[in-house]
Write a structure and sequence with these properties.
This protein is an all-alpha fold and 152 residues long. The chain has six helices and no strands. The longest helix has 33 residues.
């Protein structure tokens, strides 16, 4: 509970012996023991009250309903693969496939980076040439006559 080792207990005992004295030490330890017993009794009563409350609220039924599929899964797994060899083989296959896919992704990424680096200059030159070759649009007064007569 307090995570005290033997050395820590010996240090506490030595300090208690110095502070309280050898004459009153048994009385102090007895009093501490009585209070520890009372604290444990209160903890047990609290735990029992919580268990009773859970039973009254029918949480046991909910707990069983939640645990039923888990138990069924374990039963099916143990019936289909009692030694665990199928699961081991599937795990090995899964890890091998993941390694292959990751290797393929990194290879594709490197290849795409190389392909993208080379054609950028010709594409830019082609695009500039295409814009230079397009004829200028003829801007003439071609407004509809109906729109000119209407007022907004």
């Amino acid at each position: 509970m307090f995570d005290l080792g033997w050395f820590e207990l010996a240090v506490v005992g030595g300090l208690l012996l110095i502070v309280v004295g050898p004459k009153d030490l048994p009385k102090v330890l007895r009093t501490v023991g009585i209070y520890m017993g009372k604290a444990r009794k209160m903890a047990r009563e609290f735990q029992k009250a919580m268990d009773d409350y859970a039973k009254d609220a029918e949480l046991d039924g909910v707990k069983k309903a939640v645990e039923a599929p888990i138990k069924a899964k374990k039963a099916v797994t143990s019936a289909l693969d009692p030694t665990g060899t199928i699961k081991k083989q599937l795990t090995e296959t899964d890890s091998a496939l993941r390694k292959t896919v990751e290797g393929k992704k990194s290879t594709d990424t490197d290849a795409n980076a190389d392909e993208k680096a080379e054609p950028e200059a010709p594409v830019a030159a082609t695009a500039a040439g295409a814009f230079a070759q397009q004829p200028e649009p003829d801007v003439s007064e071609d407004k509809p006559k109906a729109a000119a007569g209407s007022t907004l």
